[in-house]
Batch of 4 targets.
Target 1
Amino acid sequence: MGATFIGVRHHSPACARLVAETISALRPAYVLVEGPVDMNGRLDELLLGHELPVAVFTSYRDAERQHASWAPFCAYSPEWVALTTGREVGAQLRFIDLPAWHPAFAGRRNRYADAEQRYAEVMESLCRTFAADNVDALWDHLFEVPPADGLAERLAVYFDLVRGESTAGPEDAAREAYMARWVRAAVADAGDRPVVVVTGGFHRPALIQLSATSDSAPVDLGWPQTPGLPATAAGGSYLVPYSFRRLDAFDGYQSGMPSPDYYQRLWDTGPESAADQLMAAVVGRLRERRQTVSTADLIAARVSAEGLARVRGHRHLARVDVLDGLAATLVNEALDVPLPWSTRGTLRTGTHPAIVEMVAALSGDRVGRLHPSTPLPPLVHNAEADLERHGLDRPGDVRLKLTDPTDLKRSRILHRLRVLRIPGFTRHAGPTTGIDPVLDEEWSICADDNRLPALIEGGGYGRTLEEAAASVLADRIAAARGDMEKLAAALFDAALCGSDQVSDRVLHGVTGAVAAAPEVAPVGRVLAVVLALWRHDHLLGTARTETLGVVVKAGVERVLWLAEGVYGGAAPAQPARIDALVAARDALVHARSALGLDREAALAVAARIASNADVPPDLRGAAFGFAWSLGAQVEPVRAVRGAFAPGSVGDWLAGMFALAREEVLAADGVLNLLDELLSGMGEQEFLVALPALRQAFAYFPPRERETIARHALARRGVAGSGRALLRLPIAPDVVAAGRALDERVDALLAREGLMGT
């Protein structure tokens, strides 16, 4: 009898009804469905009796590629209806498409991405012809709202037009050739009984042609083989609970239909009742959020929607009719962005709050639930066991002391869950950089419906929390591609997770990224974090590891190389690049012998930077402080006097103080010279220099600033506490500005001869 091909739009109730009616009428030997062929041995698992929506989640990892994708099903998905109705009539069920990890799906996070999105020209022409705003409104106009009479013929014409004479890309061509082999094999095995083929409408014309048998057609040797994972790859497929929100085009889902809760109502009760329920859902949601919607407003919205439906030729109210009617009635001011249902994609910034609530009402909050007998990946079981074993399986607040071995283990489990983005585990306090000496953490644990799906999806990274988190961090480090901030964060997360294996796996990439970084400040940030972990992080288990040592050495070399290449005259002080030299200096102080760092070469670089007038003053001062703090023979008094220029002295001092503040306090004559030079500045010069000077002296902690203040008082023979000078009732810059104003007033009075009056 041959094959009957049904081209569908994924998640279309109209197509789902056609599929159910066709299969029920034909009672075929085989029902073939576009879906992952590697799930054929697990169809009983798929049809256990889950609460929809659910999805087949597939992960893939090898040395070159990491891929994850979803094939979601809800009650009105034509593919789901094909499976359930096929089983009811006793048909053999088969998925016939390539596995989701196959290279043909590279770049797709969703198997059912709409092909028509890639043929915008045809869709735009159809929308113009039928005066529809977009493909979703066009689809409702042509298929969801009209009577079902002649639906199969209309769908065939539509998809033939969409496909046209276009040649599929190599990925779709490979998929269609593979699916056609399944069709031919099923038709041959079915004999006189029919075969029903349910695929995306875009593929239907090609499959009809490719599946036709003729003398010139290639001979298939039985059923096609299911591709197996490469020997060097890891991956697999599991069922996961899904949600209407994840199905919604307005939330970023790129296939199927928007507003899933509306289409669920359309599937359950038909277009007339769905429109009534839609209006009630929107009004109810707005009222829950204390938005005034009167009975008169509701009547006006209904009248407006019915008028629009008549103008548009709709026998029943369509989704856009109801939404346009509600928007026209309830939103009185001008809109900054188009109505979201008039375009395609996520909600835009600036969307009116009432419109946002309308969209949310149509999306719905339904969340799927797997049958208790559903197999789960090892990570789910291992994670649940870890949580129970360490008392982290109950909601509540958790306070941890990282110096306690038991609490440290619990912290690592929680951080692995955080890195995997498992919901329900939130850290409120704790170390953030590897530099700060924070030894306590505060977490909160709460129940979350999305935890199981996230754990199942995380199972694509590994069998245990440690293994999965390590894989995620390796991907983050590889994806940083020279972004030093991301690199530093990933390395610190690796330490928090207790996973030094991450660094071992990506050591070459990390050192290469550091060695190629174009700016000194970000490299300094990475160096500071990694050095802190290398130096004294016995707490996190990273102290003195060879892996981090290699990164430290590469960071020191890159910081010095980049710093010597910075030019720009009197640029304002930049604390981040000063901190980079601080990190390089600290590495030489604490790791020179262990890592074989070249102190003499570093001092030579610092000397060249400090003496180069083309280098910004903050870097010149930092380079001088770098050498001074490392014990080089320098002349600080001479250097301070030579650098003293009102427009840049604060920047130079900021660099020097950041690296050599202890040396400044201990040296003979430096504070006296600074007091002398600063006191000799005119009012205007001091006002100009004041912001930079404040930034410079901020490098001294309060106790050391008190020491400097006491020194200044002693030089003037004034007895008293230096602390009083640090607690002025008015900010110093306000005082300076006031004195400058007084000076200008005095000058004006003198010019006008009014000083003596």
Target 2
Amino acid sequence: MGLTKQSTGHNALKEMFQVKSDSPYDFIVALAGNPNTGKSTVFNQLTGLNQHTGNWPGKTVTNAQGNFTYKDKKFILVDLPGTYSLFAGSAEEETARDFICFGKPSAVVVVADATCLERNLNLVLQIMEITDKVILCVNLMDEAKRKKINIDLSLLSRKLGVPVVGTSARSGQGLEKLRETIYKTAHGEIQPAPVKLEYSREIEKAIEELTYTIEAAAGISINSRWTALRLLDGDPAIQKSINDFLGFSLIENKEIVQKLNKARLMLKENNMNTDSVKDQLVYTIVRKAEELAEETVTFHNKDYNQMDRKIDNILTSKAFGFPIMLGLLGVIFWLTIQGANYPSEVLAGVFAFIERKLTDFFLSTGAPDWIYGILVQGMYKTLAWVVSVMLPPMTIFFPLFTLLEDLGYLPRVAFNLDNFFKRACAHGKQALTMCMGFGCNAAGVIACRIIDSPRERLIAIITNNFVPCNGRFPILITLSAIFIAGSGLFSSFFAVLVVLGVIVFGVLMTLFLSKLLSKTILKGMPSSFTLELPPYRKPQAGRIIIRSILDRTLFVLGRAVMVAAPAGLVIWIMANISIEGMSLLSRCASLLQPFGNAIGMDGYILMAFILGLPANEIVIPILIMSYMSTGVMMELDSLDALKNLLVNNGWTWLTAVNVMIFTLLHFPCGTTLLTIKKETQSKKWSLVSFLVPTVSGILVCFALTQIVRLAGLV
């Protein structure tokens, strides 16, 4: 994170979160913990509406900060990304580790899950090696009680040497005591004395060799024992962060280098290299966590998770796992498709009313037609179209998707798909990022942050576009309904089946291209990871609404709006400026006609995709505008009218299939490309993300067209 001595404590907080210099706060508190422990609920309950989100400087990782007041003291609470360990791999884990290590918080609250305390204690013990100011918040005590799990919090506090508070954050139980404990710890009334982890005799001797030398070189600005451990285990990422914090490199200090070489030689004489040292450190932490759990946790019902396992035996089975997954996906799509129609019409009506008022205004002022055309018929109309078509589906899809996430089902999806991604030399977590892409590919790209390996993260980003987002679903559904599913009682059902078939094809292309990328420009072996199957939990309505609407829907919509208005300007210019009686749009379409014909489409279709770069939602309106030569985007009254227009312009079932395939396999929209650029910080990988799906779509459409034509099927 590039922290320095001057950018820690209060100064770090101002730099990272841009807190105004006159903000009245007294203490900084870090909130850490494993994923799925209810950490965000604790954060929300403590801070209420006094929250702010942004990005860490130089990072794509989202941060959240909030504040609360207790006994006239104001506390800034920093919600760190969930992590299982401080041996960081992903950007989120690195961010959490660096803030705990170098941010100098007045207290660190570690949130643990009462139903699986043993695993959560691993992180607690690692944090206790860095700072004394640790508070353990054992959350989900209500669930532990329901599962007949008893935790002796007083004994655990004595064993750890730090204050321990039991909470049930959903109901608010224990939070007042947590506030009081935070206050007393930050204020110095409670002086935690964390238990010291005892490693093997050889490692302890090596630590002793280094500790005093490090303390002499770095002073008390950093925990010398913890720093010695990091030098011994040889993690380059942690060492870089330490050097950035100190402002100089420890391994350039001659005395430290001498001591380090001596320590490593001593370890080598005992058959211990860097890897075995790290293994020993991890083993000691895990064993200590096991001992603490054995002494403080009592299971009155040994089969407390039996119901979860029975459900998992169905949801993750080879026989039922995939059918259930596809069925749930189909239901979500159907609800999204059906539910978005009415609010889309309402929004379209509101925007049409505003358009009429704008038209009246421009007419009353006598503004030139071209100004009216650019501002209203071009920029405003495109913007209105994107919002009215994108907002309702996202408002439905993201809450439904977040509901599955809150229930604990999404890790089961990743479990089902993990083996396929492993065979494709990709990361198993890519299954989760791919699922997020169904709502919006830009959100899917952002979700790739959870993948530790930079190589595998890039593969996930590049191939994320192979799952259709809500902007492409209208095209797929419309064409499948009028050219393939036909009419009748079950037409919508058949349309959903066709769309599911397209999705399965997209998943297969994701796996194929992931394997191809991993064998060519992104060579490497797939990394391993531990996939946690969290317990099934009752969804939290408030959390679902906040995360899906505010964090996802409005975030994605905001980026879409950024590119929609400029695109409207370009579209209007292309459709209304003519050269020798032919619009620029028609001239470009004529140039593209031979190429379009070779891949089973035409020049106007290709121009619709090109001009639809800002948002896939406007591809069909641009196509209608092109075929009708109106110069303004418009939509038709019915599917029958649209079918007649397309057929009259040479469309066949093959054209429809090629358009559906190219809709699935073509360049990401402008919002997604902008997101890729921000996530990768690279024009190169943004270009690769543009070319890989586009070239794939061209090749597939070309092959299909030539085969069908040679077979005489059209």
Target 3
Amino acid sequence: MTLLGDAIRQHARQIPDRIAIDGGAAGRLNWAELALALDAEIACAAKLAGPVAIELDQGLPLCLRDLALLESGIPALTIPAFFTTSQRDHSLEAARAAALPAGTAKISFTSGSTGTPKGICLSSDHVISVARAVVDHVGDSHAERHLPLLPPGILLENIAGFYATIFAGGTYVALPQAAVGLAEPFRPDFVAMARTIAAERINSLILVPEYLAGLVTVMERTGLDLPALTLVAVGGARPAPVLLERAARLGLPVRQGYGMTECASVIALEAADESTRGSVGTSIGVNRIALAADGEILVEGPLCLGSPPGPFATGDIGRIDDAGRLWIEGRKSNLIVTAHGRNVSPEWVEAALVAQPGITQAMVHGDGQTALSALLVPAGPDADIESALAAANADLPAYAHVIHWRSVPPFTPGNGLLTGNGRLRRDAIALLHLKESKEMKFLERLQAETLDAQIAFSAVPQLQAGLAGSIDRATYIAYLTQAYHHVRHTVPVLTEARARLAHRPEMAAALDSYIVEESGHEDWILDDIAAAGGDRAAAAASAPLAATKAMVDHAYRVVRSGNPVALFGMVYVLEGTSVAIAESGAAAVKAALGLPDAAFSYLTSHGALDQEHMRYFADLMARIHDPDDQQAIIAMARDIFRLFGAMFAAIPMETIDAAA
């Protein structure tokens, strides 16, 4: 029995009726019930041979399985949902093939800058000591109701959130990601997140700076107050001072932290009564912190299993003030040296950029250049980037001003450009966006020049409600009906385009492939309507909404009287969108409505198919060199983002409003 298990049983005796885990609609367990359920889960775990992989959303099953494996001494490997298939396969294979160090309780795979996850083995004593130290450092009064927002599988939330809440005797509000505004694949729904925090009377959170910035912006714009919060721990990257000031004005009790997976997450955490903001505080008591001659942060004390003896070089640059507080300056390997010989930490400049409401994400570059440049992700389709950039530069010295910038699509764990705890995967971003060649690849240009249209599309309320599962059956059937009315034209419009491009073998062959793959998909949709309780024949006989007809008519018009190559702009939107939303949307709606798998064959199958299609599409776009073809594809993609969004917006909102 571990100290964590002892704490559960102690709470079961002393506060048996207090809620331990609140899974929302999935149910709750008080401390007495948790102790009994854990015993049953341990009995089941005894039949397993480690290591055991866990791939579950936040909720009661994940909490119980995690605790049971820890108590049983069986190594557990939690696979984050954002891992790519190759990252997942690598993690599983490495865990199976490796000779794990004795005492391994957790295997944490982190997606580093190369994209290949690195496995870290931790003992139960180590992770439990960190969780206990977190509670000792901050006190147990903050753990009344803790809401996990970081993705399942992130060690920081697992230890400093879940385990610390158990030690403190609080309530872990383990709601599915879709229920807290994190089902949206393009970007988090911060409005839904803020509403959930308020409705669930949450007292403590662990956030990355991006989440803090989104939450602050929602509170500023809506006037929402969150007085129940007593602790908002922020880690993963350094938030800008101006963001901390905005949070303070709203009364958010933000405290910065610092940690490493090798140290079982938290190393240092800011105290509650700090008069000077910006440090990550002092050690929580598990590790000792020192600095090398060049300012690199060194950590001594418990480390991951198999680590060599001696101080652990973190790769981070920092300073320690007279009060013993640690200040993070940046990453040692990321340091930019300008053509003028000035050393600039990109994290410092990036923090100033994302602190502006108009900028969601930023990556600064410019090593060896006379001025800094940045890749910027706008906060919305109407974001005034120039004004945001000017405001950020006003807070920076001249040598750190960002002079050149370009809008890019969001960096996410799903596209391999962001780690699960919010760190930029700089090598991957540079590989995609910062080629040595000054000519941008066409697919990159297509992504960049349609970014504002994509953001506007993703903001359509009906789409967001569907992704969150907050729609009723009638609305889902209404969506399927409109999907039927545009999908039944897919093969005919592809066929017309193929006829007009018969003289271009490469284009014709691509369209032949799409025609074969897309044939019969409209029948899948009618089958889904029937399985969802709708009228298959009535849907097929109905007239499309005007917005749906407008999208279809536009496709025919462009193919018949314009450049038929433009149709690939429609392919980019429809298939790229389905990759992003199909499986997430299907899972959310299925969970909310309790419909059978047979009601989601179009969404789930289409999502899987289009992942392959998009790889093929990327190869095809690499061979589009004619400027007229490129411009036609970009224009069509912008039009279809707008028209497809209008189709979603035309679906009646009454039931969506009621569900939300």
Target 4
Amino acid sequence: MENITVTIDGKLCRGDAGDTILNIAAKNGIVIPTLCHHYNVKKYGACGICVVEAENSPKLMRACSTAAVDGAVYFTESERVKKVRKIALELLMSDHEGDCKGPCSLNCPAGTDCQGYVNAIAKGDDRRAVEIIKEKIPLPSSIGRVCPHPCETACRRQRVEQPISIAFLKYFAADNVAKSNAPVIPQKKAASGKSVGIVGGGPAGLTAAYYLALEGHAVTVYDAMPKMGGMLRYGIPEYRLPKAVLDREIAEIASLGIELKNNVKIGDDTTLAALRERHDAVVVAIGAWNNMALRCEGDRLSGVMGGIEFLRRVAEGRDSGIGKRVAVVGGGNTAMDACRTAVRCGADKVYVIYRRTRAEMPAEEIEIDEAIEEGVTFRFLTNPAEIIGKDGKVCAVKLQIMELGNPDASGRRSPVPVEGRFETLEVDTVITAIGQKVNVSGFEELELNTRGIISADEHTFATSVPGVFAIGDATNRGASIAIEAIGEANKAAKVIDGYLTGMDTPYRRPFVSQREPEDSCFARFEKLPRAKMPTRPADERKHDFLEVNLGFEDAVARAEAARCLECGCHDYNDCKLIRYANMYELDVERFKGEKHDCFKERRLEVIERDQGKCILCSLCVRECREVAGKGILGLVDRGFNTVIRPEFRDSDIIAGCADCLECVNACPTGALKFIGSDR
């Protein structure tokens, strides 16, 4: 056969006369995207994704069906090509109805594949579950215990009865793997020769360290505290997160060769400039350790302390500094940690003062319930007007009675003082938990925003100083939950890896297809109540710092995981459509309009067809006819109304689908799913 030579994207490529451009490109290691082509079947040229440009040609051509011309020069990523591909993908996505990922994963700030690890737990494969979790979270046992689980807020199982207990399942699997004494430690890449210094050993810093070390970089973590862990250690009480659990997970992170240096304070023991000299990149993840002030008369009296300060004292084993009557001001999880810790430190009477009602409290419901069980008294619709002192020490707090007015920017109704109405509580200690702020001492050269927080680019995480990045509570929006910091650190690690290897790779939120199913879609599911986490009795637990939760039994956890509806696409990781969609910045609203009827059918007995995901590439039809020799599938109707349907002529042929699956394997979008057989 005669040989020909063509140039594709500047590379000299050899092929056979009559070969398509696509075929020659593939032989020479050049990937041209296509959705409707498969080497098992005849050329089709339907999707329009594989277009390429030829030098001096006014028209684009489809690489899968166009024979290459000897001596021709082709471009697979020219501006014209990218524009046409983008339009083709936007048209396809405008008629695509399906969930790439479950709403649980999309609502997780770390982007954890919740569906994946819950499914693995249901199958009894805890190790696989932890492998999936550790793709995004290096501290699964710790985070599973303390995360306020935004994943569960989005879980569609609640449209049947109650959401899956996703967070508790996370630590169930991680604890089980820990008992095996064979931790999940991913393989590191070869040493890059690059060095990263991370300031801050909390969840953000440890996460960045973990993923940068996996990329082969030498990582050193510097922390001002005696031990690593940040707020997980010093801000979360022992009864919620046993420090032995945290220590184990930090040791696993360190096993990647990460150097951990404690008692290093920037500005005292070293400087940011010195770290910049020592490392190729520096990551600032110092958290937000200062408390917001009450700003009322008496807020500087002895006996007034911040929630973080109080929790840190207890975590370090120092005297708590509280009296027998304690008022905690605030409505978040830190306030709940503070009031429940005060009970365990021996306070006879503990109040929570909150200026709104319980319905507006940001704290988790379970935290509020358990605090009440432990004897905490909640004083809703009250706010400190004055802290009253005697001989320089707190003796009472004067409370302004509040009522709810109009909603504020967060959607919660704003508290409004009721003129002339006050009440007084006799207390020895006032603990403030109304917010946290960043201490930027030692980082003065970094640009701050108007709130006094380190300013970092939201896509590159870069600060105003070259080579210095910032993540977590110390940046932009300020203090948030640990999973937010972990999610940001994971994204930043990818960007910083690109910076170290000379690639400009700003973070861009992945494009995914999403849908909103009707309530009728959930009617077929049996109602199965959510597993209840067993806890120690309140009268027992409130006297010590032993862990409150007792953990799921094996059978309970498996059954709970099996309640998952598996909303996300089974083929997401292999879906060509979404892979190509993320290569271009799509405007999916541009061609928004009428869609095909979306339905699922199992008329092929062992194969489920999802018409909403079908892009009419016809690969399944052609594979069934040309490769399997069955011709069961066919295109029905014309024009926009065209769909693919099975033709039922012989039930024996259809039953043989389980031994074939050529159509399932060829489908580029997950529109076909193998659902089981007797094999």
